[in-house]
Specification:
The chain is mostly helical. Helix content is 56%, strand content 0%.
Length: 297
Protein backbone atom coordinates (compact mmCIF):
# COMPACT_ATOMS: atom_id res chain seq x y z
CA UNK A 1 0.00 0.00 0.00
CA UNK A 2 0.95 3.65 -0.28
CA UNK A 3 1.21 3.95 3.49
CA UNK A 4 3.52 0.94 3.79
CA UNK A 5 5.70 2.26 0.94
CA UNK A 6 5.92 5.59 2.64
CA UNK A 7 6.80 3.91 5.89
CA UNK A 8 9.56 1.89 4.20
CA UNK A 9 10.96 5.01 2.58
CA UNK A 10 10.90 6.81 5.90
CA UNK A 11 12.77 3.96 7.59
CA UNK A 12 15.43 4.01 4.91
CA UNK A 13 15.85 7.77 5.04
CA UNK A 14 16.09 7.88 8.84
CA UNK A 15 18.73 5.15 8.99
CA UNK A 16 16.52 2.54 10.66
CA UNK A 17 18.10 -0.91 11.05
CA UNK A 18 17.49 -3.36 8.18
CA UNK A 19 14.76 -5.95 8.46
CA UNK A 20 15.63 -9.49 9.61
CA UNK A 21 15.21 -10.69 6.00
CA UNK A 22 17.68 -8.12 4.69
CA UNK A 23 20.07 -8.93 7.50
CA UNK A 24 19.88 -12.67 6.78
CA UNK A 25 20.60 -12.09 3.10
CA UNK A 26 23.61 -9.96 3.98
CA UNK A 27 24.95 -12.61 6.36
CA UNK A 28 24.86 -15.33 3.70
CA UNK A 29 28.06 -14.15 2.01
CA UNK A 30 31.52 -13.74 3.49
CA UNK A 31 32.47 -10.26 2.29
CA UNK A 32 36.03 -10.39 3.68
CA UNK A 33 39.09 -11.47 1.71
CA UNK A 34 40.61 -13.52 4.53
CA UNK A 35 40.53 -16.75 2.48
CA UNK A 36 42.14 -15.21 -0.57
CA UNK A 37 45.29 -16.95 -1.75
CA UNK A 38 46.93 -13.52 -1.89
CA UNK A 39 46.56 -13.25 1.90
CA UNK A 40 48.16 -16.59 2.78
CA UNK A 41 51.41 -15.21 4.18
CA UNK A 42 49.67 -12.57 6.33
CA UNK A 43 47.25 -15.19 7.65
CA UNK A 44 50.05 -17.63 8.51
CA UNK A 45 51.95 -14.92 10.39
CA UNK A 46 48.84 -14.03 12.41
CA UNK A 47 48.34 -17.70 13.20
CA UNK A 48 51.92 -17.88 14.48
CA UNK A 49 51.07 -15.19 17.01
CA UNK A 50 47.99 -17.09 18.18
CA UNK A 51 49.93 -20.35 18.53
CA UNK A 52 52.81 -18.75 20.44
CA UNK A 53 50.52 -16.94 22.88
CA UNK A 54 48.59 -20.19 23.38
CA UNK A 55 51.74 -22.20 24.09
CA UNK A 56 52.99 -19.57 26.54
CA UNK A 57 49.64 -19.70 28.34
CA UNK A 58 49.67 -23.51 28.51
CA UNK A 59 53.28 -23.63 29.73
CA UNK A 60 52.37 -21.96 33.04
CA UNK A 61 50.66 -25.21 34.14
CA UNK A 62 52.23 -28.59 34.72
CA UNK A 63 51.59 -31.50 32.40
CA UNK A 64 48.49 -32.64 34.34
CA UNK A 65 48.33 -36.07 32.73
CA UNK A 66 44.88 -37.06 34.15
CA UNK A 67 43.32 -34.46 31.85
CA UNK A 68 44.20 -36.63 28.84
CA UNK A 69 43.48 -40.07 30.25
CA UNK A 70 40.07 -41.66 29.58
CA UNK A 71 38.37 -41.66 32.97
CA UNK A 72 41.24 -39.73 34.55
CA UNK A 73 38.75 -37.02 35.54
CA UNK A 74 35.09 -37.90 36.02
CA UNK A 75 33.36 -35.96 33.25
CA UNK A 76 29.87 -36.66 31.81
CA UNK A 77 31.14 -37.90 28.46
CA UNK A 78 31.16 -41.54 27.38
CA UNK A 79 32.19 -43.55 24.35
CA UNK A 80 29.50 -45.72 22.68
CA UNK A 81 30.77 -48.80 24.51
CA UNK A 82 30.32 -47.02 27.83
CA UNK A 83 33.88 -46.04 28.76
CA UNK A 84 34.36 -42.56 30.14
CA UNK A 85 36.12 -40.08 27.83
CA UNK A 86 39.02 -37.86 28.83
CA UNK A 87 38.41 -34.40 30.20
CA UNK A 88 40.08 -32.89 27.13
CA UNK A 89 37.73 -34.77 24.80
CA UNK A 90 34.75 -33.61 26.86
CA UNK A 91 35.86 -29.97 26.72
CA UNK A 92 36.59 -30.08 23.00
CA UNK A 93 33.23 -31.66 22.24
CA UNK A 94 31.44 -28.98 24.27
CA UNK A 95 33.30 -26.20 22.48
CA UNK A 96 32.52 -27.74 19.10
CA UNK A 97 28.84 -27.95 19.96
CA UNK A 98 28.75 -24.19 20.46
CA UNK A 99 30.96 -23.33 17.49
CA UNK A 100 29.17 -25.79 15.27
CA UNK A 101 25.80 -24.14 15.84
CA UNK A 102 27.07 -20.77 14.63
CA UNK A 103 28.71 -22.16 11.44
CA UNK A 104 32.34 -22.17 12.57
CA UNK A 105 32.98 -25.48 10.86
CA UNK A 106 31.33 -24.53 7.59
CA UNK A 107 34.34 -22.31 6.86
CA UNK A 108 36.98 -24.08 4.72
CA UNK A 109 39.77 -23.08 7.13
CA UNK A 110 38.19 -24.70 10.21
CA UNK A 111 38.24 -28.42 11.06
CA UNK A 112 36.38 -30.08 13.92
CA UNK A 113 38.04 -32.79 16.01
CA UNK A 114 34.70 -34.62 16.21
CA UNK A 115 32.98 -33.74 12.91
CA UNK A 116 30.47 -36.59 13.12
CA UNK A 117 28.99 -35.02 16.27
CA UNK A 118 28.52 -31.46 15.04
CA UNK A 119 25.04 -30.01 15.73
CA UNK A 120 22.64 -28.38 13.25
CA UNK A 121 23.17 -24.70 12.51
CA UNK A 122 21.05 -22.16 14.37
CA UNK A 123 21.85 -19.35 11.90
CA UNK A 124 21.81 -19.25 8.13
CA UNK A 125 24.80 -20.90 6.41
CA UNK A 126 27.40 -18.56 4.96
CA UNK A 127 28.76 -18.73 1.43
CA UNK A 128 32.53 -18.57 1.59
CA UNK A 129 34.85 -17.83 -1.32
CA UNK A 130 36.69 -21.13 -1.54
CA UNK A 131 39.69 -21.39 -3.88
CA UNK A 132 40.34 -25.02 -2.98
CA UNK A 133 39.63 -28.15 -5.00
CA UNK A 134 36.56 -30.18 -3.89
CA UNK A 135 38.72 -32.93 -2.35
CA UNK A 136 39.84 -30.49 0.35
CA UNK A 137 36.69 -31.02 2.42
CA UNK A 138 37.58 -34.66 3.12
CA UNK A 139 41.10 -33.93 4.41
CA UNK A 140 41.18 -33.77 8.19
CA UNK A 141 44.19 -34.99 10.22
CA UNK A 142 43.01 -33.82 13.64
CA UNK A 143 43.44 -37.32 15.06
CA UNK A 144 47.16 -37.07 14.29
CA UNK A 145 47.29 -33.52 15.63
CA UNK A 146 45.70 -34.62 18.89
CA UNK A 147 48.19 -37.47 19.31
CA UNK A 148 51.13 -35.19 18.47
CA UNK A 149 49.94 -32.54 20.90
CA UNK A 150 49.50 -34.91 23.84
CA UNK A 151 52.41 -37.28 23.23
CA UNK A 152 55.08 -34.94 21.85
CA UNK A 153 54.35 -31.25 22.11
CA UNK A 154 53.07 -31.02 25.70
CA UNK A 155 55.92 -33.06 27.27
CA UNK A 156 58.38 -30.75 25.54
CA UNK A 157 56.55 -27.63 26.67
CA UNK A 158 55.31 -28.24 30.24
CA UNK A 159 56.93 -29.24 33.49
CA UNK A 160 56.20 -32.80 34.49
CA UNK A 161 53.82 -33.43 37.35
CA UNK A 162 50.38 -32.36 38.45
CA UNK A 163 49.22 -29.00 39.81
CA UNK A 164 45.50 -29.96 39.68
CA UNK A 165 44.59 -26.97 37.48
CA UNK A 166 42.74 -29.28 35.13
CA UNK A 167 40.12 -26.77 34.01
CA UNK A 168 42.57 -23.95 33.31
CA UNK A 169 45.04 -26.26 31.59
CA UNK A 170 42.20 -27.82 29.59
CA UNK A 171 40.98 -24.44 28.37
CA UNK A 172 44.50 -23.66 27.22
CA UNK A 173 44.65 -27.05 25.50
CA UNK A 174 41.45 -26.40 23.58
CA UNK A 175 42.75 -23.05 22.40
CA UNK A 176 46.12 -24.52 21.40
CA UNK A 177 44.57 -27.45 19.56
CA UNK A 178 42.19 -25.26 17.60
CA UNK A 179 44.87 -22.77 16.56
CA UNK A 180 47.41 -25.49 15.70
CA UNK A 181 44.79 -27.40 13.72
CA UNK A 182 43.93 -24.29 11.75
CA UNK A 183 47.61 -23.62 11.00
CA UNK A 184 48.32 -27.17 9.89
CA UNK A 185 45.22 -27.48 7.73
CA UNK A 186 46.02 -24.13 6.14
CA UNK A 187 48.51 -26.23 4.23
CA UNK A 188 45.68 -26.78 1.74
CA UNK A 189 45.71 -23.10 0.85
CA UNK A 190 49.51 -23.06 0.68
CA UNK A 191 49.46 -26.11 -1.60
CA UNK A 192 46.86 -24.55 -3.88
CA UNK A 193 48.95 -21.41 -4.25
CA UNK A 194 52.05 -23.49 -5.06
CA UNK A 195 50.08 -25.55 -7.59
CA UNK A 196 48.90 -22.43 -9.39
CA UNK A 197 52.44 -21.04 -9.45
CA UNK A 198 53.88 -24.22 -11.04
CA UNK A 199 50.94 -26.09 -12.60
CA UNK A 200 52.95 -28.18 -15.08
CA UNK A 201 55.44 -29.50 -12.54
CA UNK A 202 52.79 -30.32 -9.96
CA UNK A 203 50.38 -31.84 -12.47
CA UNK A 204 52.99 -34.34 -13.67
CA UNK A 205 53.72 -35.47 -10.11
CA UNK A 206 50.02 -35.64 -9.22
CA UNK A 207 49.21 -37.79 -12.23
CA UNK A 208 52.06 -40.11 -11.23
CA UNK A 209 50.80 -40.03 -7.59
CA UNK A 210 54.40 -39.31 -6.59
CA UNK A 211 54.09 -38.25 -2.94
CA UNK A 212 57.85 -38.11 -2.40
CA UNK A 213 58.29 -35.97 -5.49
CA UNK A 214 55.56 -33.60 -4.34
CA UNK A 215 57.16 -33.30 -0.91
CA UNK A 216 60.51 -32.48 -2.49
CA UNK A 217 59.01 -29.89 -4.85
CA UNK A 218 57.02 -28.05 -2.20
CA UNK A 219 59.81 -28.02 0.42
CA UNK A 220 61.81 -24.81 0.68
CA UNK A 221 64.39 -25.21 3.43
CA UNK A 222 65.38 -21.54 3.41
CA UNK A 223 61.78 -20.46 3.99
CA UNK A 224 61.34 -23.03 6.76
CA UNK A 225 64.48 -21.79 8.51
CA UNK A 226 63.18 -18.21 8.34
CA UNK A 227 59.87 -19.30 9.85
CA UNK A 228 61.63 -21.04 12.75
CA UNK A 229 63.80 -17.97 13.41
CA UNK A 230 60.76 -15.71 13.31
CA UNK A 231 58.77 -17.94 15.65
CA UNK A 232 61.71 -18.20 18.06
CA UNK A 233 62.16 -14.42 18.08
CA UNK A 234 58.45 -13.88 18.65
CA UNK A 235 58.47 -16.33 21.55
CA UNK A 236 61.43 -14.43 23.04
CA UNK A 237 59.56 -11.14 22.73
CA UNK A 238 56.12 -12.30 23.83
CA UNK A 239 57.42 -14.59 26.56
CA UNK A 240 59.17 -12.07 28.82
CA UNK A 241 57.84 -9.67 31.41
CA UNK A 242 57.99 -6.07 30.21
CA UNK A 243 58.07 -3.36 32.88
CA UNK A 244 56.04 -0.17 32.53
CA UNK A 245 59.26 1.72 33.27
CA UNK A 246 61.33 1.14 30.15
CA UNK A 247 64.85 2.37 30.66
CA UNK A 248 67.24 3.71 28.09
CA UNK A 249 68.70 1.00 25.91
CA UNK A 250 65.61 -1.20 26.20
CA UNK A 251 66.08 -2.44 22.66
CA UNK A 252 69.42 -3.90 23.60
CA UNK A 253 68.01 -5.56 26.70
CA UNK A 254 65.13 -7.07 24.73
CA UNK A 255 67.62 -8.63 22.38
CA UNK A 256 70.03 -9.77 25.06
CA UNK A 257 70.73 -13.47 25.32
CA UNK A 258 71.26 -13.55 29.05
CA UNK A 259 69.57 -12.19 32.13
CA UNK A 260 66.03 -12.55 30.81
CA UNK A 261 63.58 -14.97 32.37
CA UNK A 262 61.15 -16.33 29.78
CA UNK A 263 57.74 -17.83 30.44
CA UNK A 264 58.76 -20.59 28.01
CA UNK A 265 62.14 -21.07 26.38
CA UNK A 266 62.04 -19.48 22.89
CA UNK A 267 64.15 -22.27 21.41
CA UNK A 268 61.63 -24.79 22.71
CA UNK A 269 58.81 -23.08 20.81
CA UNK A 270 60.95 -22.88 17.68
CA UNK A 271 61.88 -26.53 17.95
CA UNK A 272 58.29 -27.65 18.50
CA UNK A 273 57.28 -25.66 15.43
CA UNK A 274 60.10 -27.13 13.36
CA UNK A 275 59.73 -30.70 14.54
CA UNK A 276 55.95 -31.08 14.59
CA UNK A 277 53.83 -28.24 13.23
CA UNK A 278 55.69 -27.59 9.99
CA UNK A 279 56.11 -31.25 8.95
CA UNK A 280 52.41 -31.95 9.53
CA UNK A 281 51.52 -28.86 7.49
CA UNK A 282 53.55 -30.31 4.63
CA UNK A 283 51.80 -33.66 5.05
CA UNK A 284 48.49 -31.85 4.51
CA UNK A 285 49.92 -30.16 1.44
CA UNK A 286 50.95 -33.48 -0.09
CA UNK A 287 47.62 -35.14 0.76
CA UNK A 288 45.75 -32.25 -0.84
CA UNK A 289 47.93 -32.19 -3.95
CA UNK A 290 47.58 -35.93 -4.49
CA UNK A 291 43.84 -35.33 -4.81
CA UNK A 292 44.01 -31.90 -6.45
CA UNK A 293 42.88 -33.23 -9.83
CA UNK A 294 40.28 -35.76 -8.63
CA UNK A 295 37.35 -33.62 -9.79
CA UNK A 296 38.90 -33.33 -13.27
CA UNK A 297 40.03 -36.90 -13.89
Amino acid sequence: SASSSASSSASASTGAPPSPTTRAAAMSNDMSDRLSLDNIRASLIRQEDSIIFGLIERAQYRLNTPTYQPGGVEVPCFAPEGTRASMLEYMLREFEQTGGKIRRYTSPDEHAFYPASLPPLVIQPMKYPDPLAPAAVSININDRIMAMYIDNLLPGLCQAGDDFNYGSAGLSDVNCLQTISKRIHYGKFVAEAKFRAQPEEYTALIKAQDAAGLMKLLTNKAVEDRVVRRVTNKAATYGQDISEDLHQGVAASLGAKGGIEYKVAPKTVGQLYYQWIMPMTKDVQVEYLLRRLDHIT
